């Protein structure tokens, strides 16, 4: 769970939840399994580990981070749980990614099974930002009018800084 710097109470709640003994124990086991798998892989075939596994893992993680960015860029209202991310309703994309395109639906009801996400679409407002084909197409280059609108909103939201108190 990530918390925004503007909301220290949310960050404190998330940290408190992570420090619960059962969650901390599970996190330690998860980290140990993650490390042990890599260690065994390195011992079994160090060339495979360094020249294939590490670069491919880095590439996949980079693509995942990029997709995460595109799933949120241009969201209609970051403070509204029905408009705080972007969905893609391409049949092929959702078939290949286990309904990853139903991202707004996931934000609206995070614990819902991925097969039930399409049923939530009708509960969401129609004026939210959606993209065709794939989240990777959701970028300022593909939606220049949305990028321009977001720039204007960001400029209006920035309050002037006063240094008179110095």
Characterization of the model:
The chain has 166 residues and is mostly helical. The chain has a domain at 46-146. Helices cover 52% and strands 2% of the residues. It contains 6 helices and 2 strands. It has helices at 8-18, 21-44, 46-70, 91-96, 103-108, 144-157; strands spanning 87-88, 130-131. Strands 1-2 form a two-stranded parallel sheet. The longest helix has 25 residues, at 46-70. The radius of gyration is 20 Å and the shape is globular. The model has no long low-confidence stretch (mean pLDDT 86).
Helix/strand/pairing category: mainly alpha
Please report the distance between the alpha carbons of the first and last residues: 37 Å
Give helix and strand order, one letter per element, not per position: HHHEHHEH
Q: What about the largest sheet?
A: 2 strands, parallel
Task: Quote the beta fraction.
Answer: under 5%
- If helices are DSSP runs of H or I spanning 4 or more residues, what is the number of helices? 6
Radius of gyration: 20 Å
Average pLDDT rating: 86
Helix content: 40-55%
Uncertain runs:
none
Main sheet: strand order = 1-2
Shape: globular
Compute the number of strand runs: 2
Keywords: Membrane, Transmembrane, Transmembrane helix
Protein name: Fatty acid desaturase domain-containing protein
InterPro entries: FA_desaturase_dom
Transmembrane segments: 31-54
């Amino acid at each position: 769970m990530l918390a925004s710097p503007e909301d220290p109470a949310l960050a404190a709640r998330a940290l408190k939840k992570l420090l619960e003994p059962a969650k901390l124990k599970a996190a330690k086991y998860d980290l140990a399994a993650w490390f042990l798998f890599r260690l065994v892989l390195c011992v079994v075939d160090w060339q495979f580990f360094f020249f294939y596994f590490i670069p491919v893992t880095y590439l996949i993680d980079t693509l995942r981070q990029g997709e995460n960015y595109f799933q949120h860029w241009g969201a209609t209202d970051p403070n509204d749980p029905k408009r705080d991310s972007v969905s893609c309703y391409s049949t092929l994309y959702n078939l290949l990614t286990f309904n990853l395109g139903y991202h707004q639906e996931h934000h609206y009801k995070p614990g819902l099974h991925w097969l039930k996400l399409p049923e939530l679409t009708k509960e969401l407002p129609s004026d939210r930002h959606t993209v065709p084909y794939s989240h990777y197409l959701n970028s300022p280059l593909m939606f220049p009018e949305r990028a321009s609108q977001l720039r204007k909103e960001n400029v209006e939201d920035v309050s002037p800084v006063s240094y008179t108190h110095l």
